[in-house]
Design goal:
It comes from Rhodococcus spongiicola. By secondary structure, the chain is mainly α. It has helices at residues 2-23, 56-61, 66-105, 110-133, 137-146. Helix 3 (66-105) crosses helix 4.
């Protein structure tokens, strides 16, 4: 009976993998579909606008959507300004505070608490530091996500 219980989950997982792999397939692109985006020029930074207008990352991620490309470039510029004006300092402070709080608050398994606290503190520090470093960063992010 114990062997049956042990093998049941393994067999179900193996069946799910086989079924998932057997049904996956790709069809050719339909005629008249949008052409593939242009190749990336690795000699230029990805987030720097090109002479044609938008950055290479925006053109690759949102081909044919000029409003979304403009909002993406604006968002990345504002986030970069916020990062340079205080983002890194806030990340370092947030990571250290998160590590200390995580190590103390999750005492029985403090190593896991330290890791989780450091991750949460780093993310919180980055968001707070960029927002404090550039107040225009948050509206730029909201505008980017609002454009379809």
């Amino acid at each position: 009976m114990k062997l049956f219980r042990s093998l049941t989950l393994s067999v179900l997982v193996a069946c799910a993998v086989v079924v998932g792999a057997a049904t996956a397939h790709a069809e050719p692109a339909p005629q008249g579909a949008d052409p593939a985006p242009q190749e990336i020029d690795w000699s230029q930074p990805l987030l720097t606008p090109t002479p044609e207008g938008n950055s290479q990352a925006a053109e690759q991620l949102f081909p044919g959507n000029d409003a979304k490309q403009d909002a993406f470039d604006d968002m990345t510029n504002e986030l970069n300004i916020g990062w340079n004006n205080g983002g890194m300092t806030a990340v370092l402070i947030g990571a250290n505070v998160g590590m200390l709080v995580g190590c103390v608050s999750i005492f029985p398994n403090m190593f896991a608490g330290c890791i989780v606290g450091t991750v949460v503190g780093t993310i919180a520090g980055a968001v707070i530091g960029i927002d404090e470093g550039n107040p225009n960063a948050r509206p730029a992010v909201e505008e980017f996500f609002a454009i379809p």
